[in-house]
């Protein structure tokens, strides 16, 4: 497939992640962040393991659990903490710093050059997210800010290390390993830290199914596929599609207002995402990783 096709398929993942806030607030019981994160990761990971029938070899267990921690367990936990303690706009803006962190981490771990255009696109994208989401009554909380920055750093590290460590399996198998590992890490914390869930309604089950099957299994398979094929800086810029989708769904589904400033912010974000793809075009030495051809749609 062409680089453009790879970018479009990868961009579907953060665009769908933008529905997480809507589904969480409208379809899931409040006050169970770790439990819901475990229920989102572990069943999806086990289902993919059954479908792909590929367990990680012993040599890959440590990497699978480290990546599962960065990409899911630690990231989702810190994301919920930031969401609870900060206005959504502040939390999302801190999360958008991930693109800048990926550029720096990719330099250290992958030897990827730091390009001025890529840095400028990432900084402009952060500004666009701030215009899109931050209101005049935003209140800063030190713990929330630390959680937001930590979550961005966790996802950035997971993205770069997922590019550095590529097993000879399909993206579905790679996703299955990480989701299962992340869910297993989250499960004991959920049992210890939170009370038992109340009886789930049909709406609750539907929301969990969406977040687990589509918002985790399918989207992360697309994301890790893109991580293997596209430059790290270009992949990280695509993550800024998530707040744009979240605001659009809030406007369409919940009837929330959309101001001129928010529209300007959305335009800036989309422009920065495009600029980031141009600035992060591969150098002559960049070689995409081509996974094995099982489950070829994701390979």
Automatic annotation (TrEMBL):
Q: Which UniProt keywords apply?
A: Membrane, Transmembrane, Transmembrane helix
Q: What GO cellular-component annotations does this UniProt entry give?
A: membrane
Q: Name the predominant localization.
A: membrane
Q: Residues in domain EamA?
A: 7-133, 144-274
How does the protein's chain sit in the membrane according to the entry?
Multi-pass membrane protein
- For the keyword Ion transport, the answer is no
User: What's the superkingdom here?
Assistant: Bacteria
Stretches that traverse the bilayer:
32-52, 64-84, 90-110, 117-136, 142-162, 174-193, 205-223, 235-254, 260-276
Compartment(s) of residence: Membrane
Q: Which InterPro entries match?
A: AA-Vitamin_Transporters, EamA_dom, EmrE-like
Family per record: Belongs to the EamA transporter family.
**What is this protein's record name?**
Probable blue pigment (Indigoidine) exporter
Lineage, highest ranks first: Bacteria, Pseudomonadati, Pseudomonadota, Alphaproteobacteria, Rhodobacterales
């Amino acid at each position: 497939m062409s680089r453009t096709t790879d970018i479009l398929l990868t961009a579907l993942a953060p665009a769908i992640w933008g529905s997480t806030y809507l589904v969480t607030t409208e379809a899931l019981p409040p006050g169970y962040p770790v439990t819901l994160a475990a229920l989102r990761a572990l069943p999806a990971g086990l289902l993919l393991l059954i479908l792909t029938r590929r367990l990680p070899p012993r040599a890959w267990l440590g990497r699978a659990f480290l990546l599962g921690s960065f990409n899911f367990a630690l990231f989702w936990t810190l994301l919920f903490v930031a969401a609870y303690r900060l206005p959504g706009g502040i939390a999302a803006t801190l999360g958008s710093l991930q693109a800048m962190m990926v550029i720096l981490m990719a330099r250290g771990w992958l030897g990827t050059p730091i390009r001025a255009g890529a840095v400028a696109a990432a900084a402009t994208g952060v500004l666009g997210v701030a215009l899109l989401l931050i209101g005049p009554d935003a209140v800063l909380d030190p713990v929330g800010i630390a959680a937001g920055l930590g979550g961005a750093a966790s996802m950035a590290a997971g993205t770069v290390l997922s590019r550095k460590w590529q097993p000879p399996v399909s993206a579905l198998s790679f996703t299955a390993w990480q989701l299962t590992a992340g869910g297993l890490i989250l499960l004991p914390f959920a049992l210890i830290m939170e009370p038992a869930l109340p009886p789930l309604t049909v709406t609750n089950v539907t929301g969990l199914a969406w977040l687990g099957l589509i918002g985790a299994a399918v989207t992360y398979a697309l994301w890790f596929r893109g991580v293997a094929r596209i430059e790290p800086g270009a992949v990280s810029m695509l993550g800024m599609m998530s707040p744009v989708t979240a605001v659009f769904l809030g406007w369409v589904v919940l009837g929330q207002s959309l101001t001129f400033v928010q529209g300007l912010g959305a335009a800036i974000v989309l422009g920065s995402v495009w600029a980031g793809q141009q600035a992060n075009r591969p150098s002559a030495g960049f070689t995409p990783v081509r996974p094995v051809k099982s489950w070829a749609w994701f390979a």
